[in-house]
Structure formats: C-alpha cells, structure tokens
Write a structure and sequence with these properties.
Length: about 325
C-alpha cells in the first residue's frame, strides 16, 4: 500500500476551506496540520475536518515528523516568502494564486525550486476547471484555435472581505491576483507567449489604496488577442466570464459551466462532466499536486511554468506607475 501524503494547510479562510473539501475526495492524502492567524477559529475548522495539529506559526508545522507537503492559502503578500520557507524545509509546496506580488519574488521562488528539485506549484485554477480543459483539449486536437478572448472579472468589494463575506487582514488586488488568472490562461490556451500587453486603470480608492477598475489588452505571438475588464465596483452579476472566439466556434465559460453560442438560435450547453474525474477545479488542482509528488515530475502550473505570467504583470505595473 502506498504511504499517505501528509499535508499541512496554511490559511483557514474561504479558499482554505475549498481545499479541505477537495482533499476529502482524494485517496492517500491526510491533512495533519492547520495554520491560521486566529487560533480559536482555526481550531473550530480543524475539529470540523478532523485535523489533529493546530498552530498560528507555519514554522511549527514544518517541524512535524513525517510532513511531506504544504498548501498555502495565506495573504498574497506572504506567498513568495512562505513558499521559499517550505522549500527550504524540504517540503513540496502548492501556493494559491498569485505566486508573488512582484516579479522579483516570483523569480526567487523559481530559482529556489530549481535548486531543491521539490514539487512547487501555483494554484492557477483556470487550467484545471473542466470548462477550460474542454477548450484546451479541442485546441490540442487541432479542432479549435483562439482568435480572441474577452474576459470580465467583476466583484462588488469596497472593503476587505473574502468570498465568505468575512473580513480580511489584507487588501486584494486586481492586477496581482485577479488578472493573473486570465494572463496565464490566455497564454496557456493559445500555446503561445504574450508579446504585447497594455493596461489602464481607474481612480485609486481613498481607503484601500488600490485601483478599483482596470482594463488590460494582450496579444500572443501567434496573433491571438485578449481583452480583460476587471472591477471591484460592479454590483452584480459577480465572478469571471470568459468568451472564447475561435475559428470553428464561440464558447462562454462561467466557472465550471460551458456553453457554445450561435449567431442564430439559443446557446447550447456543453457537457463537461466527463472531462475529468471531478467538476471541482480546486480538487483537480490538488490532485495534480499530489500526483506530481508521487510520480516525481513537474506539475501542470508549476512555478516555472507560470513565471511568464508574472513578467507580464510586472510590465503592466510599470506602465501603470508611469502613467
């Protein structure tokens, strides 16, 4: 029998819970430690999921005997430093998107991963959502090529709240978090690097200190283009909606749902239930992480694979700062 993979999970907020729910469905994996800043609330979550060790310090978990891997669902500003902390402790690590909030931070993680040879993966979940996998598989089979992607990432978030409506201790960011999903997905789906990128942003919020609206244009080396609109000011509907305009079809992906649109007639629902073993993108992301550990290989969405995304984000930030 294969030995279980013992995992510590840092961050018991909205996304940490999503990972815990996904891991419940994966054989041979055990969450042995839960780390978060509020010990009482962390203990409540640990009790709910049967996790025996609770702490507010990642270093405590890294010392546990038999610990193999760590999943980081902590504030963005901690991602690069904590990922390197895990790698330096000899642990495989998956960090939620974004890998870092600077190109220098992302590059430092990639350099350390290469030195250690450990599995290090970033949670670019769109690569794993069945709706996007369906499109990707059609592209790989030569049945579909992207001419344009039109993407809307819209929230109504004027205070620091998470997906569960709970207060955050940190400020979210349209460029370094939400744009990262689309920038990476566009290049991944096109199979072609981004060679042009432009951005404009709206006013800076007086309290949060970030732009609440942003528009980004991208072009891949193969000629495909992408237009991305992002807002924290949108009063519904919320979420991210992807329109794939291709040479043989047009698709709209709404999280794990996919429809094909037609110039004449109603949308056609595309059945993506058999694309993978689950309809849960987070679970599929975690399955890839653990499979890569067991098989001793580079995972899809490794830190090295997604580094190009952070180069683009860096270039866009330079543009916005100079405007």
């Amino acid at each position: 029998m294969t030995q279980p993979i013992n995992v510590a999970l840092a961050g018991a907020g909205a996304f940490g819970i999503k990972h815990l729910d996904g891991i419940k469905n994966i054989d041979g994996v055990k969450v042995v430690s839960l780390i978060s800043r509020d010990l009482e609330k962390t203990q409540e979550v640990a009790d709910q999921y049967g996790i025996g060790h609770v702490t507010t310090d990642l270093a405590d978990s890294l010392k546990l005997p038999g610990l193999d891997a760590v999943i980081l669902c902590t504030p963005t500003q901690m991602h690069a430093e904590q990922t390197m902390q895990c790698l330096q402790a000899g642990k495989h690590v998956q960090v939620e998107i974004p890998l870092a909030d600077s190109l220098a931070g992302a590059q430092a993680v990639v350099d350390l991963q290469k030195k250690t040879g450990l599995v290090a993966m970033c949670g670019h979940t769109r690569r794993f959502n069945p709706s996007h996998q369906y499109v990707h598989n059609r592209i790989l089979r030569g049945e579909f090529n992207i001419q344009q992607m039109d993407v809307q990432t819209y929230f109504f978030r004027r205070t620091n709240m998470n997906a569960l409506g709970q207060p955050r201790s940190w400020t979210d960011h349209l460029l370094w978090h939400h744009a990262a999903h689309t920038v990476d997905l566009f290049a991944y789906q096109c199979g072609s690097p981004i060679v042009k990128a432009n951005a404009v942003q709206g006013p800076i919020h007086k309290d949060l200190g970030i732009a609440m609206d942003m528009s980004i244009q991208l072009q891949a080396a193969n000629g495909a283009i992408c237009t991305l609109s992002l807002s924290f000011n949108n009063d519904g509907p919320l979420g991210t909606f992807f329109r794939y305009i291709g040479d043989t079809a047009t698709y709209i992906a709404r999280y794990d749902d996919l429809v094909q649109t037609h110039a004449k007639g109603p949308e056609t629902v595309v059945d993506v239930s058999k694309v993978d073993v689950s309809m849960n993108g987070i679970e599929l992301q975690d399955r890839e992480f653990f499979a890569a550990i067991r098989e001793g290989r580079e995972p899809n969405s490794s830190v090295a694979q997604v580094l190009a995304c952070y180069q683009v984000l860096h270039d866009l930030e330079q543009q916005l700062n100079a405007a």
